[in-house]
């Protein structure tokens, strides 16, 4: 038995020393020390050993196991160290090379301007509402007091899908849809993409964005409209900004006006930016036409309201002093990353 154990030990040590990788070491461990290994087979044969010889044989088996396990552990550490050294040599990093720069995106100038406008009106208690871009002719025109023979339909150069479906030319249809729900009072803004058959130039595009706002409640007057928009202009362009209202005509408001703000470049003195006038046109507005209220199921004798609409691109162009609208859509990273 002693000779057999000595032979198992010598053969195991030889195989361990010849092993060149960790997998080979594991194979030796299993073949000698595993459940079906040679040393385990010796232990199972202890029943055939004389009782008086069993302590001595058990001691020899344990010494052999310890010697093999010790050799396995020492060789494992050597192989792991050699493998680590080889991997470090193979995967060496040249720290003098320039690092790869991640190109991280950020918000578009339009989105920055939109979030600023939304922040201002939400702070005043307004709700942000969205609606469909493919709209019914009724909501885009008729419900806004623009019947089929109205010249405004020609002025807006609409994209028609068929006789009753259009690509919306404004976000005012969202206001009509909200009024039809009958939940009063209403304080809302409706930002979104709109479409008109315009030629592309520095100030026009067939696809652009508008922000329409509306308030409907009892005893709403033009003074409320003026106060709201004056506060909006101050928040957007600076505390010293003043506003001026000029009479105008919109089919869905009466009376109607266009609003100018003092040039935030020269403070109203006149400069190249405002073309020497000291004022910059920014939006259209007015009191909601009684007929529009009535068509949406609201009694104009009890309720009144005001509405306004501003081009999002116009705000971005003015706020960031951009002189060509096309720059917003050409996706030139050199331009966009400035904001």
Automatic annotation (TrEMBL):
The note on cofactor binding and number reads: Binds 2 magnesium ions per tetramer.
Regions that span the bilayer: none
Which residues are involved in binding Mg(2+)?
A: 254
Coiled-coil features, chain-numbered ranges: 65-92
Instruction: Name the enzyme group at the top EC level.
Output: ligase
Return the SUPFAM superfamilies for the record. Answer: Class II aaRS and biotin synthetases, tRNA-binding arm
What GO terms are given for molecular function? phenylalanine-tRNA ligase activity
Q: Where in the cell is it found?
A: Cytoplasm
Q: Needs which cofactor?
A: Mg(2+)
HAMAP family per the UniProt record, alphabetical: Phe_tRNA_synth_alpha1
User: Quaternary form?
Assistant: Tetramer of two alpha and two beta subunits.
Q: What is this protein called?
A: Phenylalanine--tRNA ligase alpha subunit
